[in-house]
Design brief:
The protein is an alpha+beta fold. It folds into 2 domains: 94 residues, Pseudouridine synthase I, catalytic domain, N-terminal subdomain (Alpha-Beta Plaits, 2-Layer Sandwich); 139 residues, Pseudouridine synthase I, catalytic domain, C-terminal subdomain (Alpha-Beta Plaits), CATH 3.30.70. 22% of the residues lie in helices and 32% in strands. The protein contains 5 helices and 10 strands; from the N terminus they run βαββαβββαβββααβ. Strands 1, 2, 3, 4, 5, 6, 7, 8, 9 and 10 form a 10-stranded mixed beta sheet that branches. Strand 8 and strand 9 form a beta hairpin. The longest helix is centred in the first third of the chain and has 13 residues. The model has no long low-confidence stretch (mean pLDDT 95).
Length: 246
């Protein structure tokens, strides 16, 4: 029995998230259908991250076990032929029996993109949140600093299963010039993230960038452990899973 690890890239705009659901398209659903066509049987798959509806990935990791004699390279070529064009296998390899895409992960890195300008460029329409008014990037950086380290992130989670304690190791903000405006990329790295946690953080940081919340309020919001104290949940299409850390 081989244990296969895949690294996937996908445009999440046309999917109801990664996790399989009945009667709606999902990334794992498409992958399972393609594996069944290839191997002639249902193959359970494990994903490192249950990305939400509309969220993208450049480095989602999936693992599954199979008794097939296909090589890892065979899986890559065959699946890219069978999968829809908005889901690609970037890498396939055979790994040790103990590897588990979810439980072996030590951390994840996500990026949330904002386009600031009057008109949203066509190529960014599904991948960046469009903000027309100016944002104070310095205020957003100061606010983000309060989130670093280990905290109870109840105020930034829509749903909590298990402990609300999470650790954020870095929030890097990268500014890029575009002929039509400015792109702000917020890169989050941490051990794990609660359901819609990054999008809730982004909604709060946007309020700080607009002057609606002072950067120092972030610490008070954390301590309150109350979702109503934080900002709105930012749209999913600006979020992308960059990589899973093992």
């Amino acid at each position: 029995m081989s244990n296969i690890r895949l690294v996937l890239m996908y445009d999440g705009a046309g999917y109801f998230g990664f996790a399989e659901q009945k009667e709606v398209p999902t990334v794992s659903g498409e992958l399972k259908r393609s594996l069944k066509k290839l191997l002639g049987e249902e193959i359970p798959i494990i994903g490192a991250s249950r990305t939400d509806r509309g969220v993208h990935a450049l480095g989602q990791v999936v693992s599954f076990k199979s008794g097939s004699r296909l090589s890892a390279n065979d899986y890559k070529g065959a699946l890219n032929f069978l999968l829809p064009s908005d889901i690609r296998v970037l890498k396939a390899e055979e790994v040790g029996e103990e590897f588990h895409a979810r439980f072996s992960a030590r951390g994840k890195e996500y990026c949330y993109s904002i386009f600031e300008g009057r008109d949203l460029p066509f190529n960014l329409r599904n991948f960046s949140l469009h903000v027309r008014g100016g944002l104070d990037a310095a205020a957003m950086r100061k606010a983000a600093d309060y989130l670093l380290g280990e905290h109870d992130f109840t105020s930034f989670a829509q749903e909590i299963i298990g402990s609300p304690i999470r650790r954020i190791d870095a929030i890097d903000i990268v500014e890029k010039n575009d002929p039509m405006g400015r792109v702000l990329e917020f890169r989050f790295r941490g051990n794990s993230f609660l359901y819609k946690m990054i999008r809730a953080i982004m909604g709060t940081l946007i309020e700080a960038g607009r002057g609606k919340k002072g950067p120092d309020e972030i610490n008070e919001i954390l301590k309150a452990r109350d979702r109503k104290r934080a900002g709105a949940t930012a749209s999913p299409h600006g979020l992308c899973l960059i990589r899973v850390i093992y």
